[in-house]
Amino acid sequence: MTGEALARRTLELDELAAPAGARPGGRGNHGGPGGPPTVAAYVSIGGEPSTRALLDRLRAAGVRVLLPVLLPDNDLDWALYEGAERLVRAGRGLLEPDGARLGPEAVTQADVVLLPGLAVDRGGLRLGRGGGSYDRVLARLERAGARASLVVLLYDAEVLAEVPAEPHDRHVHAAVTPSAVHRFTAPGGRTEG
Q: What domains are there in the chain, each with its CATH number?
């Protein structure tokens, strides 16, 4: 999937936020009526669907984009995305923003959280990479009562009948692939795709 195709498919924030009841500029987590929508995203690496064009399009549309900063204990801090020229190389081949750190709780302000993953099942259960960083993010959102829409970015072949599950695993509201936006009810029931 090209970054441009992914950007076109995921830029529709109202549509992506709908499963969680959040509305950018409306009743989302960030600010209330008139506040900028907030999307927690990530800079793709390796063979992941490219997020570069998406990040720039979101920012150009006035969206407040948060990017993760990997902490030594594998938890995630967050910083504002201020353009590709403000990304710096970090450990594990990651690119991270060089701006002020907002703290691990900053993700609870997001209306939409874009998640990396290896796969998702047809019920919306996400299979992560095994490092636990995003498991912590999802648990933090749940503890805070945040209503962010959880969206995993994948290729078509990564939407599977089922994936292995651990007790701490969480379901997502949608999976975006090159050919479709797959929406799920929580927890575990597929609604459309």
A: 3-192 (3.40.50.10420)
